[in-house]
Amino acid sequence: MSTTNCASLRHLIQEFTMRSLATVNIGTTTQVVDVSGDDNTSLRLLEMGLTPGVEVTIVGAAPLGDPVELELRGYRLSIRRNEAARVVVAT
Amino acid sequence: MSSTKARNATGQQSLETDMKLTVALLGNPNTGKSTLFSAIAGIPTRIGNYPGVTVEEKVGTFLHRGHTIELIDLPGAYSLNAKSPDEQVAVDVLCGNITSVTQPDCIVVVVDATNLSRNLYLVSQALAVGRPVLVALTLCDVAESKGIHIDRKKLSEVLGCPVLRLVAPRRDGIDQLADALIESSDWSGQVVPKALNTYLSQSAESDRPVAAADAIARYSWIDDITKDVLSFSTKHSRSLGERIDAVLTHRILGTVVFGMTMLSIFSSIFWLATPLMDLVSGGVELLAAWAELVIPDGILQSLVINGIIAGVGGVVIFLPQIAILFLFVAVLEGCGYLARAAFLMDRLLVGVGLSGKSFIPLLSSFACAIPGIMAARTIENRRDRLLTILVAPLMSCSARLPVYLLLCSAFVPNVAVGNTWFRLPAVVLASMYLIGILVAAIVAFVLSRTIFRGPPQPFVLELPSWRWPQPAVVGERVREAAVSFLKNAGTLILAVSIVVWALGSFPKPVIQAGVDPVSAEQQGEALRQSFLGRAGRFIEPAVKPLGWDWRIGCAAVASFPAREVVLGVLGVIYNLGDVDPGEEEGAGMLIRQLRSATWDGTDRKVFTLPVALSIMVFFALCAQCASTLVIIGKETASWVWPLVSFTYMTALAWIGAFCVFQLGTTLGW
User: Fold this and answer.
1) Which chain A residues touch B if contact means CB-CB below 8 Å?
2) How far is B233 from chain A (nearest CA, A)?
3) By residue range, what is the domain housing residue A57?
4) Are the beta carbons of B249 and A69 separated by less than 8 Å?
5) What is the distance between the alpha carbons of residues B190 and B185, in angstroms, rounded to a whole number?
6) Mean pLDDT confidence for B433-455
7) Which range of residues forms the domain containing residue B10?
8) Which residue in the set B118, B223, B460 is minimally distant from A44, CB to CB?
9) A16-30, B4-18, B582-596: range with lowest mean pLDDT
10) How many independent structural domains does chain A possess?
11) How far is C-alpha B407 from the geometric centre of its chain's CA atoms?
């Protein structure tokens, strides 16, 4: 198989078997596997340190459940749930 | 570098061999960059906007060991891969793309020691610019208290540039930094570390988009570095900062604390400002009295007192509110709470097309839209910022309150609502505020789906660690805001006041024989025959559907400089003379006069309940505030948006007043 087929297959498997930061419970610490999406938002998430392999903890959420507060690389970051949904994490 | 004569602190001219060095101060937001800037360069020598954008330019100059150093405080940036106007400006300045700004000779990257990992991302990009780079490690004391240790020597080796330790508030390390800046001119140029280059070239083979692969490669390099350089001592029980956070972002407690904080800010802007405002207004009155003594009676006296002093004085009176608001905003921003407030309110505001960062500007607009609009500078997202600025004037400001109070007490029957404890005048008053909020929500919602429709902007927001706000930085922000407000008052608002005065004073009526020229009747006649009065008659057909007679229309037009003027004008036009509706007798007289006012040539009363309501709704939604429009123009660097604001708000005000009047008359209120 060519590399492109491998890549899309990998993404497909990820979507079905792995969780995202939007679905993880508050208080859990987990590892980032990947950040999906090609646009500025996904790039911003990567640039803020949500890169594959990094440890991230979901510290809390705002009263209405959105946005969520994360702790990673020694600092606190808040992102909206639809942004958190792009961050695939390990089960 | 350029050769230039320079003067040192005592004013003596130094030697011709002095060199001027231009240094860029780059760094993430919340790293204490402003504190560092103040510590090294003091008060900025140049403040304004970069050409063509509403991004603030801040430059300072200082002398060190005979050298003149120009320090450019670049806007906070997380990455040089620009995604916002702020970051774009930072890139443009570093590359020398802005002709009015000298390309920096050397770059200082301010790095927050408490989160080295993310801060090194920007350093990795700065190393590629080609100019000498210096890393200034700040917040070292906070890091040490958290048990974070950084091996500076090793870090410096790995990065290939000096790493200096700074504690800016205590001025630790400032001199060493300045020394290092001067020495940097001897370096040949910055090289990108080999290890980083290896990762970057490997990333080219990845199947990801280029930018993403680049970001991941950089962090791989950073992770290698931090393994060697960063170490943690045993963590004690949760630090104070973490415990504070646990409360402040708690679903219930956090919201309670938030509510109380916002309430106290809001009340302070009203109550704390009042004695100061009285002081200012007292001063203005003294000035008017002095002018009356010194300038002989006539047109000049009228121009100075009723045009210039009244117009500009009426605006300058808001200076205490602005200063207090900016004080709070600067303190909240400095300690880190501003980000948390945006975090808490975001979901609510996203629902109407705004974002969490709009909350404080909108809240402050309840006191006065001017500081609220200026506070919108904290919103980096251009679209959100513009939208916030456009709906901020719909928050019922303190200038509308006298209008509401007078009309409510005069024309709303003081009965209880149904079987409840609430009284009708209070309910109507509250409704006026709610109407503003509701209309603002609708306008924001509609605009965000139509004209301002665009790709969703990321909300990705850093919640900075808790720290003490730096007095120097807070003071600077308040000073900046006050100065820019006064500059606007002294220019455009002055111009508008003079124009309105002229329209209200000319042409002069023919003075009938035997009539006292300054009697109330004569003043009323003078106003009616002036251009302003004629304008009122001219627009009478347009305001009849609102239930207004031409005199109310004239008052509405005349209140363009400032809303609260409408009551005074009503007084004059109904032949009351110069009544002060703020004082009890004045208000009492005005109410009596209004109650007995009839349509020209008939016995039909002008002021009925529906008319009073329509006037209130009109003022709730209208843009009769020249100062606000001027500030909108300045903050958006364009005359289009003030025009748009005025047009849409006047239209909404008319429609609202029309609906209320027609509905009220039909229902027989």
Assistant:
1) 3-4, 7, 35, 38-49, 51-54, 59-67, 69, 73-80, 82-83
2) 14
3) 3-89
4) yes
5) 11
6) 89
7) 2-232
8) B460
9) B4-18
10) 1
11) 31
B279 part of a folded domain: no
Q: Is the residue at B540 inside a domain?
A: yes
Distance from the B386 Cα atom to the nearest Cα atom in chain A, whole angstroms: 20
* The last residue of a domain, from among B232, B256, B280: B232
**pTM of the predicted structure, to 2 decimals:** 0.76
**Contact between residue B630 and residue B493 where contact means Cβ atoms under 8 Å apart:** yes
Inter-chain touch B212–A42, beta carbons under 8 Å: yes
- pLDDT mean over B545-568: 82
C-alpha pair distances (Å), B457 with each of A63, B28, B348, B563:
22, 19, 16, 36
Q: Which residues of A touch B118 (CB under 8 A)?
A: 48-49, 73-75
Is A61 close to B251, i.e. CB distance below 8 A? yes
A19/B621: higher pLDDT: B621
For residues B606-622, average pLDDT: 92
Residues in chain B: 669
Does B215 sit within 8 Å of A46, measured CB to CB?
yes
Which residue does chain A place closest to B28, by CA atoms? Answer: A48
Domain end (from B232, B253, B284) = B232
pLDDT tens track for B82-104: 887 788 889 999 998 888 888 99
DSSP of B75-86, one letter per residue? Answer: PP-S-SS--SHH
- Calculate the average pLDDT of chain B: 82
Q: What is the CATH number for A22? A: 2.30.30.90
Residue B414 maps to a domain? no
Contacts by residues B150-153 (CB-CB < 8 Å, ≥ 24 positions apart): B150/B113, B150/B116, B150/B229, B150/B230, B151/B228, B151/B229, B151/B230, B151/B231
Our count of domains for chain B comes to 2
